[in-house]
Amino acid sequence: MAKKKKKQQAQRKKNWMVGILVLAMIAFVASQIPWNRFSGPKASSTPSSTSTGSTSKTSSSSATKFVEEGTLTIRDNEGQNIATVSIEVSDSD
Fold first, then answer.
1. Distance (Å, rounded) from C-alpha 49 to C-alpha 43?
2. For 40-78, how does the pLDDT look when each residue is reduced to its tens digit (9 = 90+)?
């Protein structure tokens, strides 16, 4: 009976060690994954869009600019034009 109990204790200890090893391996693999890649597009510190005209507010931490009037040209990373938007303000009240 004592032999069986020692065998069970050794098996339990082995199971704990295997479990801890598996958790350590999972933690290591999870730390190697670039998680920020899966969170979607981020606002870059250098705006990817440029505008001409009078600017009332400019946010420096993103590519968002508030323009009263002018032309907004959106370019990709290589400098190719993606879209051009013309903005005109009219008082139609």
1. 12
2. 555 555 555 555 554 444 444 455 666 567 777 888 888
